[in-house]
UniProtKB/TrEMBL annotation, chain A:
GO terms for biological process: protein import into peroxisome matrix, docking. SMART domains: TPR. One of its GO terms (molecular function) is peroxisome matrix targeting signal-1 binding. This is Uncharacterized protein. InterPro entries: PEX5/PEX5L (IPR024111), TPR-like_helical_dom_sf (IPR011990), TPR_rpt (IPR019734). The lineage of its organism: Eukaryota, Viridiplantae, Streptophyta, Embryophyta, Tracheophyta. Belongs to the peroxisomal targeting signal receptor family.
UniProtKB/TrEMBL annotation, chain B:
This is SCP2 domain-containing protein. GO terms for cellular component: cytosol. It comes from the Eukaryota. InterPro entries: SCP2_sterol-bd_dom, SCP2_sterol-bd_dom_sf.
Length: 619, 122
């Protein structure tokens, strides 16, 4: 507490010295081991002090008109007194002092000093021995006054003018030699130089050197018996000292108390304690961190992910998901089917029938398991693989769909449904070349239109050529919905969305109950920024097949692309609750959650907590 | 975007159309920055195709930006897709070296998946 008191006490030096309420002052006094009162100087070694009266000084200060700042003076007085006590305690040999200044970094000043020394040399040196102290003490004992009176006379900044005044006085007196005058002039310049130096470093660190030199200068002038001049001259010195001191000791102390302590330590302490008191230093830190990037989603994710409570795991999870999914990606893109780990349908007597039944009921994820059991049992069952592929497509997993369809194609290389499905899924995966190749093969393998297409297989059919061939086929049999469907997919590949929409609409007139066709129309409309129309088409699909995960997910996309994130969330949640493995939907859900400022639910999304999400976003 | 073999080109074509929608116009208001994308088929810096997403004007164009984009990204086709579809966090992509960024990091951080419309599945 004492330290704190020291720190937080009044900043200003109190006028009454030892009884100062300024803790810093007390502290300094305690260190010096004496009060700043002039009387205590008596006890100093080598000093024989006699205490002059105030009037004495008054007598030496006949000039009396320039008003000074009392307050300023009072602040100046304490440090001055303290400097004096310090000087006494140093017990500096006066002879040495007479000979030269301490060697400090002020070569300039020393030079001036030496000059003034030589100028003043004629005066006897040791006569003065104790006298200077007395004189000094006189002034000090007048501490209430001597500086004050000077200031009253000359004002706080009056020393320079006083100096000049004094110079001219001396010149008029005619007693002063030119060298003396020159020295004083130089001293004045020096004083000015020093006074103008506001560098706190200089003022602080060289403080005592400066003070001792100043004091000695004062004394020397006294020694030289420059009577009137001495008083005023020393006052000049003193004032210069004060000027320095204003910027120096006084303000040094002030500064120290104010800046170092209050701004520094105290503030620091306060800050620390307040921060600490807010509890959870960690939380604070996180707050600040996220404040730094307020509108920055990445940072949000980052802070939420990496630093938030209990969210380090999701971050790691995400990273691992990323790694595993990329692994899976590469597997799937190579057409490797990834089986479920735990499959209750393995060992089922008739998994194919079970799978078909589940598919018909719209229990797609269950159907996947049953059909997986079937193809594990009968790896060459093309229909099993095909239905598995279809189920995955409806479940919004094109990569698994592609893998399954490729196995189906192995078993039955000319299955048109499989070829079309592969064309569609590769289109969804933005794999244009693959898609085009399968759709081309569809035409080649078609019993009716195979004659149109050149029989030799091409690895990279040219899109417009394929489209041209299909248009021929459509002319041949305009009532064949499948041709229009393939055309619609082809136009999606070439991004001729209007033509694609027309093709799907034509097909729908022929097959209005085909929910996947409604979805294709919707998706095409959505991709050509007709999201509102798309939603109507998806609705048709869902009316026909309520558990059509792909349509639910597409619904979410259409709402999200329109900026209706809140709505999109509900559809995504529906999609993922029907197929928890629908990674795309999970990713889109996450994006919509952050866009809808529902960062609170991102964790639930990351941990794939369906209960929380379904409760929060009922459809 | 025509004639590009990149999957990203399809997303960017969609983004181009998307700029005309209300949601797209919202982006120009919200972000108002210009991004240049250098997209490589396989390896960053090799056979790059350059696209510009100008969210000041609301345009998506092919070819380098005339002037100084707020941020320039270099990534591969598939990494770009992963980022756009939310598969990969851009921050993580950057940490892993899957994205190279030039220009304002502040601008780069506002390059998020929601700039791009999501492709719907047939």
């Amino acid at each position: 507490m004492a330290m704190r008191h020291l720190i937080t006490g009044q900043g200003n030096c109190a006028p009454d010295g030892a009884s100062s309420s300024n803790p810093f002052g007390n502290f300094a006094n305690a260190l010096l081991g004496q009060s700043s009162k002039a009387q205590s100087i008596k006890e100093l070694p080598g000093s024989s002090v006699n205490v002059p009266t105030t009037s004495e000084l008054g007598a030496t200060a006949p000039l009396s008109t320039i008003p000074g700042s009392e307050n300023e003076f009072k602040q100046d007085q304490l440090p001055l007194a303290r400097v004096n006590t310090l000087l006494h305690s140093l017990d500096i040999d006066s002879n040495y002092r007479m000979k030269g200044p301490l060697h400090g970094p002020y070569s300039e000043m020393e030079e001036y000093w030496n000059q003034s020394q030589s100028a003043m040399r004629p005066a006897p040196m040791h006569v003065v021995s104790d006298k200077w102290i007395t004189e000094f003490d006189k002034q000090n004992n007048n501490s209430e006054n001597w500086a004050n009176s000077f200031e009253q006379q000359y004002g706080p900044n009056g020393w320079a003018s006083e100096f000049e005044q004094h110079q001219s006085q001396m010149a008029m007196m005619g007693g002063a030699n030119m060298a003396n005058l020159a020295a004083m002039e130089q001293s004045r310049m020096l004083a000015q130089t020093l006074a103008s130096n506001n560098d706190p470093k200089f003022q602080n660190s060289k403080f005592f050197q400066f003070v001792s030199k100043m004091s000695r200068g004062e004394l020397i002038i006294e020694d030289n018996q420059v009577k009137q001049g001495s008083a005023s001259q020393s006052s000049g010195w003193a004032d210069e000292f004060q000027t320095q001191y204003n910027a120096n000791a006084n303000s040094w102390a002030d500064q120290f108390v104010h800046e170092e302590m209050s701004q520094g330590a105290e503030k620091w302490a306060n800050e620390f304690s307040s921060e600490y008191n807010q509890g959870g230093l960690n939380n604070n830190w996180i707050d600040e961190f996220s404040k730094l990037h307020v509108d920055d989603e990445w940072a949000e994710e980052f802070s939420g992910g990496a630093f938030g409570e209990s969210s380090a795991d999701p971050w790691v999870d995400e990273f691992q998901n990323q790694l595993s999914s990329s692994k899976q990606n590469s597997g799937a893109s190579r057409g490797v089917y990834v089986f479920s780990d735990m499959n209750p349908y393995v060992g089922h007597p008739n998994p194919m029938q079970e799978g078909q039944e589940l598919f018909r009921k719209g229990l797609l994820s269950e159907a996947v398991l049953a059909l997986e059991a079937e193809v594990l049992k009968n790896p060459d069952n093309s229909e099993g693989w095909r239905l598995l592929g279809v189920t995955h497509a409806e479940n919004d997993d094109d990569q698994q769909a592609i893998a399954a369809m490729m196995r189906a194609l192995e078993a039955n290389p000319t299955n048109l449904e499989v070829l079309l499905a592969l064309g569609v899924s590769h289109t969804n995966e933005l794999e244009q070349g693959e898609a085009l190749r399968y759709l081309h093969r569809w035409l080649q393998n078609h019993p009716k239109y195979g004659g149109i297409a050149p029989p030799q297989p091409t690895d990279s059919p040219y899109g417009p050529d394929v489209i041209r061939l299909f248009n021929e086929a459509a002319q041949m049999s305009p009532e064949d919905a499948d041709v229009h469907i393939v055309l619609g997919v082809l136009y999606n590949l070439s991004r001729e969305y209007d033509k694609a929409i027309a093709s799907f609409k034509t097909a729908l007139q022929l097959k209005p109950q085909d929910y996947s066709l409604w979805n294709k129309l919707g998706a095409t409309q959505a991709n050509s920024i007709q999201s509102a129309d798309a939603i109507l088409a998806y609705q048709q699909a869902l009316d026909l097949k309520p558990n059509y995960v792909r349509a639910w997910a597409n619904m979410g996309i259409s709402y999200a692309n329109q900026g209706l994130y809140e709505d999109s969330i509900r559809y995504y949640v529906r999609a993922v609750s029907m197929n928890p493995k629908a990674d795309n939907a999970w990713q889109y859900l996450r994006i919509s959650l952050s866009n809808a400022s529902r960062a609170d639910m991102v964790a639930a999304c990351d941990s794939r907590n369906l209960d929380v999400l379904q409760k929060e976003f009922p459809l | 975007m025509d004639g590009s073999k990149l999957k990203s080109a399809q997303i960017l074509e969609q983004a181009r159309l998307h700029m005309a929608t209300d949601a797209g116009k919202e982006l120009t208001k919200k972000i108002g920055l210009v991004y240049q994308l250098n997209i490589a088929p396989k390896k960053i810096g090799v056979d790059e195709e350059i696209f510009v997403i100008d969210l000041k004007k609301g345009e998506v164009t092919k070819g380098p930006y005339e002037g100084k984009p707020d941020a320039t990204f270099s990534f591969t086709d598939s990494d770009f897709l992963s980022i756009v579809t939310g598969k990969m966090n851009p921050q993580i992509a950057f940490i892993r070296g899957a994205i190279k960024i030039k220009g304002s990091i502040n601008a780069a951080q506002r390059f998020t998946p929601d700039i791009f419309p999501k492709p719907s599945k047939l």
